[in-house]
Amino acid sequence: MPNTLKLRLSAMMFLQYFVMGATIPILSLYMKDHLGFAPVQIGVILAMGAAGMCVAPLVDALFGERLLGPERFLAVAQLAAACVMFLLSRQKEFLQFWALYSVYALVFMPTVALTNAVAFHHVPDSKRGFGGIRMWGTVGWVAIAWLFGYVWLGAGGGLDDALTFSAVSSVVYGGYALTLPRTRVRGTFSLWKAVRMFGKPDLVLLCAVTFVAGIVHQYFYYGMSPFLSHIGFAEKHIMPAMSLGQVSEVVVLGMLGICLVKLGVKRALIIGLLTQALRYVVFAYGRHKLLMIAVMPTHGFCYGFFFTAAYIYVDSHSNPATRGSVQQLYTIIVSGIGPFVGFLFAGKVAQFFTQPYGGAIDYVPFWLVPAALALAAALAIAVFFRETEPEAPDPGH
After folding, report:
1. Are 187 and 321 in contact (CB under 8 A)?
2. CA nearest 89: which of 137, 37, 34, 44?
3. pLDDT one digit per residue (tens) for the chain, 397 residues
4. DSSP designation for 35
5. Dist CA 336 CA 38 (whole Å)
6. Among residues 93, 104, 53, which one has the least CA distance to residue 330?
7. 96 vs 5, 16, 87, 166, CA distance in Å?
8. How far are the Cα atoms of 114, 143, 288, 294, 395 from residue 16, in angstroms, in the given order?
9. How far apart are CA 91 and CA 95, in angstroms?
10. CB–CB of 333/214 below 8 Å?
11. Closest Cα partner for 119 from 269, 213, 1?
12. Domains and CATH numbers, the chain
């Protein structure tokens, strides 16, 4: 793959996650402390983002693959998302906020899977090449955490400005998307073939565990920023502290290709899930700021060794005719159904463990719930998952 093409795809990933990183880490804190929403209400709103992921394959198939093409659809979707996010930044009431965030999810979330599909389309060897490109998405996430979280908030800006930052960034990304190389979809959209592929035993188990991992992973984004605020972190320090996880993710994704070759996918998945369980146990019982900062880098292993490794495994078992459909269908599980249930579940658990006097959440049982789920998922992979080699391509396709 030419270096110029790799640079362009890396810039696409940078902007995609720069936009997302402006709001996702602190949105629950913003709704809790600045808008006064209840834990269950916060879970319902955040779940709408995951609901957008559930319909993303249909939107991408119609607009991203057939009518507009991936790069044009990215541009249109980002510009539309910018308009909705700007309106969202002006809302203070639950119903209006929920409605606009639902619209935002419908127009923005399809772009997440589409960027993966564009990158996979242009990368000859996804196991070795995709991690290095996806790494730049993480760099974008870290960049906005420090630019907004430390510089802007440190200079006296407000947490609500994060939504405006996201809107402006979407405008920039929309313009850049028009410069991306043309991505032609090879073959036809074949949902049935993708479903048949997921009928393989190893992929059935991987999908089931991914559903659980999706619940566990979104627990972090629901609870972390309010938790850090609860134990004494200033608002300007929360995003930079959380971004330490993405810093480690840059390192992990950069070496993921080598790790998958050396360890194999199964061991990588287990490492990712066990690390997830470990960090939630630390969150449950630790309260010292330095301990929280020390444990944040485990995020790179949680995300890279499970989610990215699983994406690569699924992609390696697809073929050119079904690759787009397979990636989109898997995205429903990893970023749609699992997180949808996860945010609703986290909201219910947070509400259940909210103290009747003072309204504070008891974070010990709150964090132990996802720790137990992650441990169960790791055991399932260790006992039942059998890594298989991709089938030889059909010469008729």
Report:
1. yes
2. 34
3. 677 888 899 999 999 999 999 999 999 999 999 999 999 999 999 999 899 888 877 776 676 566 677 788 889 999 999 999 999 999 999 999 999 999 999 999 888 878 877 887 777 666 667 777 888 888 899 999 999 989 999 898 989 999 999 999 999 999 999 888 877 655 444 566 667 777 778 888 998 999 999 999 999 999 999 999 999 999 999 999 999 988 888 788 778 888 888 888 899 999 999 999 999 999 999 989 999 999 999 998 898 899 988 988 888 877 766 676 777 778 788 888 999 999 999 999 999 999 887 778 999 999 999 999 999 999 999 999 987 776 655 544 4
4. S
5. 23
6. 53
7. 42, 26, 10, 19
8. 10, 12, 33, 27, 36
9. 9
10. yes
11. 1
12. 3-178+189-384 (1.20.1250.20)
- What predicted TM-score, i.e. pTM, was given to this entire model? 0.87
CA 256 remoteness from chain centre? 17
Apex CA 334: angle with CA 313 and CA 184, to 5°? 65
Q: DSSP labels for 223-256?
A: HHHHHHHHTT--HHHHHHHHHHHHHHHHHHHHTH
The answer to whether the beta carbons of residues 156 and 109 sit under 8 Å apart is no
| Cα(9)–Cα(65) distance, integer angstroms | 18
The tokens describing 393, both together, are 């391509």
* Both structure tokens of 237: 């320090």
Residue type, 332: I
Q: How far apart are alpha carbons 31 and 34 in whole angstroms? A: 6
Query: Residue 169 CA to chain centroid, in angstroms?
Result: 18
d(CA 293, CA 143): 18
Selection from 79, 345, 373 nearest residue 222 by Cα:
345
- Residue with structure tokens 């609901």? 51
Tokens of 346: 């986290």
Tell me the two tokens of residue 183.
């991505």
DSSP 8-state code for residue 354: B
Q: Report CA-CA distances (Å) from 355 to 131, 285, 352, 358, 359.
A: 43, 18, 8, 7, 5
